[in-house]
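Researcher: Here's a chain I'd like modeled. Treat it as a single chain, no partners, no ligands.
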Amino acid sequence: MTDWPGAIISVVNAIMRVILAAFTLRARRIFHEKFPYLGRFYDYITLGFILYAITKFLFLPLNLDRAGVIGISKDIAKLLNFLANTVVFLFTLIFIYAWVSLIQTLTKRYTLIPSVIEISGEAKREIPVGVYLCECPRTPDSAVFELLKGRAGVIITRKPPEIIRKQINLRRVPILWLTKVEGENHIHPRRLEYLMQSLVDFMKRDNTPKVIILDGLEYLILENGFDSIFKFLTLLKDYSVLNNTIVLVPITKSIFKKEEYSLLRREFPTLEEALSSTEK
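Model: Modeled as a single isolated chain. Structure tokens:
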């Protein structure tokens, strides 16, 4: 007796797996653009879905044979069963590897930022810890060098580190590059949680006073939106106050909307204001 419901379910199941694989392939480009650091995981999952569909089509003749819709020989059945189970094994390996890859990517922390005091001595003018805006040059000027005296520093910048090191006379202060290109000491602009964790680890490393220069704010806003970056800065401010750290954020006033700039100024003083207050 023919089992038509079972046969129909087997065929529909196979078609649904093909649709799933096709949808995943179609969305690949958009996913890579939005989440490039998860691209490898997505490609593994896509391959897994393709193999997942293939297994169903290999098992389909066996299911239809059992349902009495078609008839196949024992040798063909053994071959299809072997091929299907082999593909299932490959699918399982790829799925496990993709899952491990995802966990490693999501839990990855950037290389711990070393606590290096490159400029010895004491600053002539001490300012309170916290986050400060600065309409200053994109590379550290004399005021920044003054802040680095006796403090361990780190620079986060949109420019490649080798260019920054040629522009300034700092050789040991760690530099993190905001870029979508993967590499050592590279930070993807959309991975704010990892950037925050790296900076918090740096601030908590020891009792040494520290300075963080966060250049590239406009780039971070472009990638994440103003609201996300404002929340990021306010949280960074809280950590800096608790961990004896000065955070300097170079900005260009003209790129902000009036309400955005007003919000920044209400929450964060400027370096110029802090320095002038120490002269009184």
